[in-house]
Design goal:
There is one protein chain. By secondary structure, this protein is α+β, with helices and mostly antiparallel strands. It contains 2 helices and 7 strands; from the N terminus they run αβββββββα. The C terminus is likely disordered.
Length: 142
């Protein structure tokens, strides 16, 4: 019984240390699935532990790569921010590759959508004009 207890304890310690050793993506900006009214200024990835961000790519749904000024980081950090160019309305995908302190590589991706701010502004103006015309018609009726 004593040997069984030691074996179970050692196994649990080994497994738990392996689980705790790996970092995960905690959150991103933009968030996965976000619908943005304007282009974001940066990508931000926050991990549960400090990691070296090795590679980040940004592409449209059609597969067009958006150039980023990012060559990887040599310093481990929990939060990584990357400035991005102004994005046109489209669906975008971010792919990332990071390395934890234990040299374990992790990868992931998330998507977001940039809507046309001009189209929304035009719709908003059209709706306001229609409402004003409706309320004008109502307020001027005798």
């Amino acid at each position: 019984m004593n040997m069984l207890f030691k074996t179970i304890t050692l196994t649990l310690l080994f497994v738990s240390s392996q689980l705790w050793a790996h970092a995960e993506l905690k959150t991103s900006l933009p968030k996965n699935g976000a619908m943005l009214m304007q282009s974001p200024e940066k990508l931000q990835l926050e991990f549960t532990k400090a990691v070296r961000l090795i590679k980040v790519t940004l592409s449209t749904k059609a597969g067009q790569n958006i150039p980023l000024n990012f060559d990887g980081t040599s310093k481990a950090s929990i939060v990584h921010s990357i400035l991005i160019p102004k994005l046109s309305p489209s669906n975008y995908q971010v792919n990332w590759l990071a390395m934890g302190g234990d040299t374990h590589k992790m990868k992931g991706r998330f998507n977001f959508n940039v809507n046309s701010n001009e189209a929304n502004a035009t719709n908003t103006r059209s709706n306001k004009t229609a409402k004003n015309q409706d309320s004008s018609a109502v307020s001027h009726s005798h």
